[in-house]
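Field reference: sequence -> structure
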Amino acid sequence: MLDSYGPRTTWRMTQGGPGWCAAPPRRTPTSRRITGLAIAGILAALSGCTIPRDIATDDESGAAATSQSERAPATLAAPPQGDFSIVSGQPIETPCWSYEGPQNFVNNISSDGETLCLGALELWGEVIDGVVVPTGVGAVYGQVKVEPVRVSTSDAWGAGRDLDGAVDALADSYFAENGTIISLHEQTVLDGVPANITRVEGGIKETRTKAFITAFAPEPFTPGDSAVQFFVIGIVTPYENGDELIEQVVSTWRWA
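Structure field:
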């Protein structure tokens, strides 16, 4: 879902069994195939660039995708013990921001991406007895994805630093591309600055919450060759405590 800032990444499938995507080690980018969960890039929506949407299946059924060479069901990794839906336990820090995210999500961002203030926690798992279990293989059912937006891009929206105006500018071109909008404006605060929560309907039956937190940082950052100030935090979870995850991100978020 890169509008944003960093260089485009070529995502590759990694095999952790016949036809299955294995969760990568920390800082190793890998492909994600998720139906209705993918968060489209802002530049893709606003500038006309095309980024392929991630899908979980080839047939839109929502089951984990398989390769053409698959001949037998993959063996699942041993599921973790405890509460799968825990929202804390994994501190994340970049030159622009920091927060504490869910310990069962994989930190799937490269060191270079982290330097550019990108973030990508992903819940890799399988549906077992109707519950998404974070096994480390299969499909991605949850995300906390952070993207900075170039100042040149946000200036083009014509809203200045007015957050409501920026959200309105993104309503049809971005949020609606990610699902039916349930609530466009919901006020919150990120480390002392105004922020907004936009909620949309998820595209697969497992999704319980899909939302976007947006805010202008207090001052522009220049982590690469362009200044950024507007940030989008995409949140997707298959668990019933979606509001708790949103509050966890909001309450632990700190600007650098």
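Note: The mean pLDDT is 76.
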